[in-house]
Amino acid sequence: MNLELSEEQSAVRQLAKDFVAREIAPHVIEWDRAESVDRSIVKKLGEVGFLGLTVDEEYGGSGGDHLAYCLVTEELGRGDSSVRGIVSVSLGLVAKTIAYWGSEEQKRQWLPGLTSGELVGCFGLTEPGTGSDAGNLSTKAVRDGGDYVINGSKMFITNGTWADVVLLFARTNDAPGHKGVSAFLVPTDTPGLSRRTIHGKLGLRGQATAELALEDVRVPASAMMAPEGKGFSVAMSALAKGRMSVAAGCVGIAQAALDAAVTYATEREQFGKAIAGHQLVQELISDIAVDVDAARLLTWRVADLIDRGQPFTTESSKAKLFASEAAVRAANNALQVFGGYGYIDEYPAGKLLRDARVMTLYEGTSQIQKLVIGRALTGVSAF
Ligand code: CAA
Question: Can the keyword Membrane be found in this entry's annotation (predicted)?
């Protein structure tokens, strides 16, 4: 693996840095307090091509490899995880999955809108009763002539209230566990689909997280994506790449924590000198720096494997596990450097910590990642 970035990768990273400085950084505190990022950010993300990365230009995508995708995701995560999440879900979990599994008609129907930012996608897997045990979901889609009629509910859905389309997972037959699950592309304006914003989150406050309710939602059979009963493979393949994207966002959080801690430590004086000159502050800062590097290298390895067509699922779980835990440690260490100022939202460390905390929970908890890694190493499933 070559760790030197190509000219194209360096250019896209710079584009993302400039975008964050111009479009995100000035609004971070305001969006966090208002519990909503400005929706116009979606169109702007589309205009610079960030919502089309790795998707073929034929379908409106902006191409690029998975390392470029990670570089952009990291920079967005450095700026604001609520914005990063929009991309990780609308592009990462929805558009990329349609590009991989969708029929020609489904790609033409959804990809140009999703990659341009005209449309937003969300990923409807988690339910009130099934989080980690996703294969046991209970939303049902029943065949009725040329249609399916869907009933059920979905929980903690990122982009949920903003989305135009939900990649929805529902049970279509009585086969046990994941075998009976199919995937559907459901327009969110379909009668019977309602949404409720979830308020009171610890972090990611700017993100439109929602609960979805489906009551007799009728879609044509052509809304099914991939063969009947293959829905769980669709979900797992989406999450295998999605976990890399979360890991990259976590690298961004940790990098932001490092940048903020170093700047503050060189400015803040105690005991007659900058606190950067105190050994225990240097320890906090160097711990953050090692976490940043290790998380980034694990994440880049996943991108490299994907781009070379190699298996990457276990490596993606390793990257997500380490980077999410590292982001929490890094933000917490940065908060310690800031002392009391770290506890108020005019300084960045508190928000970084609040945003980082969910990374060990969503797209598979740290415990699920450990079991995925353990199964790959031992050949024995603990599920
Ligand atoms: N590509 C294609 N197919 C895959 C795959 C991949 N990468 N990984 C697994 N599959 C297929 C398998 O081949 C298998 O198919 P068959 O039965 O046809 O052979 C099927 O998927 C099931 O695979 P597993 O045996 O690995 O599945 P499992 O039942 O053992 O999975 C689990 C258990 C790993 C715990 C899984 O349930 C899991 O990942 N749980 C966590 C759920 C999760 O991450 N939820 C996140 C919600 S989304 C979210 O947070 C988004 C958001 O809004 C931010």
Answer: no
How are the residues of the chain apportioned to helix, strand and coil, as percentages rounded to the nearest 5? 60, 15, 25
Burial class (CB in 10 A: 0-12, 13-18, 19+), 15: middle
Question: 200 Cβ partners below 8 Å, 6+ apart?
Answer: none
Distance 121 CA to ligand 1 centre (A): 20
Q: Which of 75, 315, 325, 363 is catalytic?
A: 363
Q: So what's the pLDDT on residue 54?
A: 98
Q: Is 312's C-beta closer than 6 angstroms to any atom of ligand 1?
A: no
* Confidence at residue 377, expressed as pLDDT on a 0 to 100 scale: 97
Residue 85 CA: nearest ligand 1 atom is 54
Distance between the two ends of the chain, CA-based, in angstroms? 33
Q: E strands of the chain, at which residues? A: 121-124, 140-144, 147-157, 165-171, 181-187, 193-197, 210-220, 224-225, 269-270, 273-274
223, amino acid identity: A
Weakly modelled stretches of the chain, pLDDT under 50: none
Mutate to test the pocket of ligand 1, among 162, 173, 236, 378 (most ligand atoms within 8 A of CB): 236
pLDDT for residue 1: 87
What is the C-alpha separation between 128 and 18, in angstroms, rounded?
A: 39
Distance 116 CA to ligand 1 centre (A): 29
381 C-alpha to ligand 1 centroid (Å): 13
Structure tokens, 258: 């490092």
Structure-block tokens of residue 62 = 């902006």
Query: Quick check: ipTM above 0.95?
Result: yes
> DSSP secondary structure string, 106-121?
HHHHHHHHHHHTSS-E
